Amino acid sequence: MILKNRVAIVTGAGSGIGQAGAMIMAKEGAHVAVADRSAPGAAETVSMIRDAGGSAESLILDVTDDISLEDGIASVLKRHGRIDILHNHAGAQIAGDLEQVEVEGFDRSWSLNVRAHFMAARFVMPAMKAQGSGVILNTSSSSGVLYDREMIAYTTTKHAVIAMTRQMAGDYARFGIRVNAVCPGWVDTPFNGPFITQMGGRDAIEAYVREKVPMGRWAQVEEIAESILFLVSDRSSYMTGQILVVDGGEAVV
Ligand SMILES: NC(=O)c1ccc[n+]([C@@H]2O[C@H](COP(=O)([O-])OP(=O)(O)OC[C@H]3O[C@@H](n4cnc5c(N)ncnc54)[C@H](O)[C@@H]3O)[C@@H](O)[C@H]2O)c1
């Protein structure tokens, strides 16, 4: 098991890609703090991990609430004495172009997709520096390397995640801390609701994925989880500041 005795915090781990990432980390021996604002979602992930013989705990919090986030991270540190992995995954899509998107929606995107990653990294950093090791993984998106039509809040924030990842990686490599980003393409989770509505429904999105993704299909959450595992484990021990795009080839064409 390549993550034996490691302590991981995964935000947005109560569903979708975050859940699959939490599962694969636990399968490889990590204790996973499943951080999510949805108590049922977090509970589901924790029981899936425990049923599979792994170790996990729920951390019910809204990552945009600085005090809850700081307290939650501090509680994990207090219980386990270390934090080896932070996967900043919780994020949301708010549709609209410059004139359509509500300003409040733009602010909410920034707060969740960028600022919460920044704050969580800031809260774990003293422990990682003291340990002389640690891994931070930020979830960006293929929309962090491409531009979607009429999705200004989402693409702006996901591009910003990449800039922040590279900056943090350069600043903290000397402390033994690696920082990378994963950019998933189309994964069929509840997350895509706003885009599907904007596109005009299920048939439209299925046609879009067939047409736009060279591999012609959605990714399974498990396929993204394999890349997450690579980036949070010693398998990527000489990689930092890198952006791993896992999108069936969409960014290539
Ligand atoms: N699904 C995709 O196609 C896709 C593609 C590229 C990138 N992503 C990225 O993956 C992340 C989530 O996608 P998913 O497919 O796993 O979504 P999902 O909807 O399946 O899960 C998101 C989870 O995040 C939690 N969450 C949302 N806001 C939160 C908050 N403020 N505090 C704590 N928890 C919160 C939700 O409760 C939910 O459990 C986002 O960062 C998104 O940009 C997804």
UniProtKB/TrEMBL annotation:
Superkingdom of the organism of origin: Bacteria
The UniProt record lists the keyword Oxidoreductase: yes
Keywords for the protein's UniProt record, in alphabetical order: Oxidoreductase
InterPro entries: NAD(P)-bd_dom_sf, Sc_DH/Rdtase_CS, SDR_DHRS6-like, SDR_fam
CDD domains reported for this sequence: SDR_c (cd05233)
Entry keyword annotation includes Secreted: no
Annotated Gene3D superfamilies: NAD(P)-binding Rossmann-like Domain
Cited PROSITE patterns: ADH_SHORT (PS00061)
MF terms (GO), sorted A to Z: oxidoreductase activity
Family according to the record: Belongs to the short-chain dehydrogenases/reductases (SDR) family.
UniProt-recorded name of the protein: SDR family oxidoreductase
Organism name: Neorhizobium lilium
